[in-house]
Fold:
Amino acid sequence: MPHSTLPGVIELLDLPGVRATRDYILATDERTLRDQVELTEIPAPPFGEEARGQRLAELLEEAGLVEVRTDEIGNVVGVRHGRETGAPLVLAAHLDTVFPAGTDLKVGIEDGVLRAPGISDDGRGLAALLAVARALSETGVTTRRPILFVGTVGEEGNGDLRGVKHLFRDGGPAHDACAFISLDGAGIRTVVNRGLGARRFRVVVRGRGGHSWVDRGMSNPIHALGRAIGALASWPPPSQPAVSLTISRFGGGTSVNTIPVEAWAELDVRSESERHLEVAEERVRAALNRSVDEENSGATDDSQRTDLQITLIGVRPPGATDADSPLVEAALTVSRILEVEASLVSSSTDANLPMSLGIPAITLGAGGEAGGAHTLEEWYRNTRGPEGVCRALYTVLLVAGVS
Amino acid sequence: MPHSTLPGVIELLDLPGVRATRDYILATDERTLRDQVELTEIPAPPFGEEARGQRLAELLEEAGLVEVRTDEIGNVVGVRHGRETGAPLVLAAHLDTVFPAGTDLKVGIEDGVLRAPGISDDGRGLAALLAVARALSETGVTTRRPILFVGTVGEEGNGDLRGVKHLFRDGGPAHDACAFISLDGAGIRTVVNRGLGARRFRVVVRGRGGHSWVDRGMSNPIHALGRAIGALASWPPPSQPAVSLTISRFGGGTSVNTIPVEAWAELDVRSESERHLEVAEERVRAALNRSVDEENSGATDDSQRTDLQITLIGVRPPGATDADSPLVEAALTVSRILEVEASLVSSSTDANLPMSLGIPAITLGAGGEAGGAHTLEEWYRNTRGPEGVCRALYTVLLVAGVS
Structure:
């Protein structure tokens, strides 16, 4: 990993305007935390991001962005023009949470710890997005390239990256982006430059069902699915890069003495390698088909057989941004200037999508510390919080350029 | 199998009063079907038989029984006194169904076919129970022994025969019964004289859970259970007598990208042989223990392991009534008089319990034809329906005696 300082970085950060942005971020740290609390308390369940998006749009407009709008699928997009037109830099945080409608989102504050579902993931990212926009407006720093500020929908789970997919579609506002930076959760010690891919499946096995004794020998959907789960559980998946294969949910059956009519399961397969995802998908399909065939082998007529249905319910393409690309170097250099030795890691975030398209993309934590992501016990502490915002801002300035 | 006609059978059935019962049953066939429809449409899910029981009690009282009552656990019991006191004959049908609360029970009638969950099992048995009671009352036939008419709770699934167990408990109203006849479902061609035993288990596997990628390799309760289901599904169980092994329900997991904290399953094992039930139980326990161990083999510390809990949730003792016992001979003889060559078969019904206590017990279908038991597509056709009721009635008269 190259550790040279990018030429001109020190000079750039020494520009009076740039110094002023840092002062502004430090001075308005309380405001950033207030935004974080306010946005976290607005429900944004999967496929229900409207209310939070609407408030983010108001705040982005107040922060001096222009052309602020909510697009067809709910992404909130605002522009800060550069001195030049052309390929924009995209800075994004995601609106959605994993928490269903009705979850108590009230933020509790005690001993400097903020507690609420989503307070870090991605309440922190959204607050940092606003802080960066305000710092540029208030200090009058203008970049060379235009910057798109975006709150995306559908980053989590079955949202299937639909927000960022829409943004980067042919003709979408980010289709020609020069780079993409996602602010996702807390932290300052990592730079995500590899995008973990995922394929997700829902499997349903259906049969005729019957009485556990009278109809013994009839193909049983739970048995069929159990055979497949057993086979997949003992499969040694490829390594380098690793693959995870998780059967995460299953269900079926109505009563203890009834051969069930239906059994279903959901599977999650992840890897940084598209090829390994393909291998795993082949394995999943083969195990399911073989297991259903095995279960059907005792059937004496077709009506006793079970049928298999496999639905692909999610695709996250894997991808990577080269460790020596200007974007990654910028993030690492800025980290070092802030006296943080950041490491390059892999994760599954909005950045996956531009990575898979060959557009340089990274994901940064937005400062502070956090834990319990995706649980009701999620918490955030503002240790080095403003420095996380500065790290994002400086990386933006290095990539977008300050003339 | 002895096929001699019991001494005095022809003479008994030729008594004017007994002839009149047959005429009554044939003449009131429509009423019997109306009862069947009405009772089937009253929900009686597992552990929720009150409403159907209450209506049955009203109908049994209208049918001329005395001392009609609902006992502590929900059985409906009514008495028809005999000329003598002493050990009663018990005639029973079961109130409960396998269908959960909320199931649509509306009976559809088309081309002579009645369709509804539970229309045969045991709507038909309950309707026949009423028809037998009414025929005796309306024709004034009095038996030598008293007869207990019973609607039992808990015949199905996890009900675990709790109704009939309560009836035959020490000091229970049937503890000294001379014989037990269960009317269960449709049909006229079989006499159940062997009681299929069952053991039922609930299995819970628990682990720490986690993120499908970050925590990959952690022991997964769904994987552990799937391994066991796969192993059990391909187990060739003992034969002669046969064993059925059914994993009938399972569930677990919260979100597609989360290693679940818990997975559970319910299993049903059946055989006429107590020894084979033991063998199967050993196999179930061994497969579960081995599968959890296999799943745990990758755990690097104890907190990553999953734990297994197996609970025996139901025991149905196997049993038999000798083929040459007076009760079985009575049922076969009556069948023959009705020009049916009935065969002796094995099933798991309320009769298991008295059989296991050494009390002569059989189960009879209550006439008609049916299919799809324990499914939403259950149907009933009234072919030889009244003859099924007559078969039950005559068997009762032969065993209880007509003076």
Summary: Chain B touches chain A through 61 residues (CB under 8 Å). DSSP finds eleven helices and 19 strands in chain B. The longest helix of chain B spans residues 274-296. The radius of gyration of chain B is 24 Å.
